[in-house]
Every structure is written in structure tokens, then in C-alpha cells.
Amino acid sequence: VAEYDLDVHVVDTYNSSWSCSSRVLVTLLDINDSPPKFILSNLSASLPENSKVGAVVTLVHAVDSDIGMNSKLRYSLTDSAKGMFSIVSNTGLVRLAKKLDRELQERYTLVVRARDEGSPPLSSTAPLVVRVLDVNDNPPVFVKNVYSVEVAESAPLDTDILRVEAYS
């Protein structure tokens, strides 16, 4: 809210000896005419697939050039990837809501909304890409369940006798 303190002096043009003065306080009230803007237009984060539920993913931040309630922001996820992520509405802190598995999905694209508390409320959105980092959490598995080989008794030392395949 901007305030201006003015001294007003009025003089009668017919009789200049008639005049008066007054002090006037002018208060300008803000209208909600500026939508929130995200500091970064393309948001991204990454976290290991073994992160605990509740782990911090990132902190998003938007600004609103209005003042007062017109600039107070609330954050939400319009697409939380089927509940995989959550956001703290008054801070923009994005958290992991469900367990990750990179072998099932290695990237999530969320939509973050910043909405002001003006009347009418204004909002904007920004994409948030979350990359899941691989952790070696799967034991190797052999291609075949059983391997068998016959070795000649006279085979020299260090002879390759069997090659097995495994994947993880």
C-alpha cells in the first residue's frame, strides 16, 4: 500500500483573500493484476531410487509483484504423477510421497502451480522434471538355472571350461 501525504491550498479566483488549506492523505490500494511468476521456467531435480518416503526432492519458488494478500502464494501439484510426490503449500517444498523404482520409471514430469490469494486469485504453472538415479539394488540373475560341463582329466591348468551369462 502506497501512501501520499499532500498539502492542498485553495484560493478563490474572485476574491484572493479567501483561501483555505488542508492536509490530505491519499492511500493507493493494490489490485490483483500480476500473476505469480516462477523464478526458473524449467524446473528439474534428481534423487536416488532408494530415497526414503518423505525425502526432499526440491524447493520451488515463484514471486508476485503485487502486495499484501495479492502477493501471498500457495503451491500445489496439478499432476503429482499418481501421488508419487507432494508439495508443502505454503513453502513450495516438494517431497517424495511413495517409494521409487528406477527399473519401473526413470523420469517423472510434474506440473507445479503457484496461486496468489488475491481476489480474483491468479496463478501460473511450471513443469518439474524429476529424474530417478539408479542404485545397484538388483542382484545378478543367471540366464540359465543349471549349468553343467565335462572336463577332461588331462586338461591343462587355467583352461576355460565354461562361460556363464548373468544380468542384473
From TrEMBL:
One Pfam match: Cadherin
Q: GO CC annotations?
A: catenin complex
Write out the annotated subcellular location: Cell membrane
**Domain Cadherin spans what residues?**
4-38, 39-142
The alphabetical list of record keywords is: Calcium, Membrane, Repeat, Signal, Transmembrane, Transmembrane helix
* Biological-process GO terms, alphabetical: cell migration; establishment of planar polarity; establishment or maintenance of cell polarity; homophilic cell adhesion via plasma membrane adhesion molecules; intracellular protein localization
Signal sequence, start to end = none
Per its record, how is this protein called by name?
A: Fat-like protein cadherin-related tumor suppressor-like protein
Annotated source species: Triatoma infestans (Assassin bug)
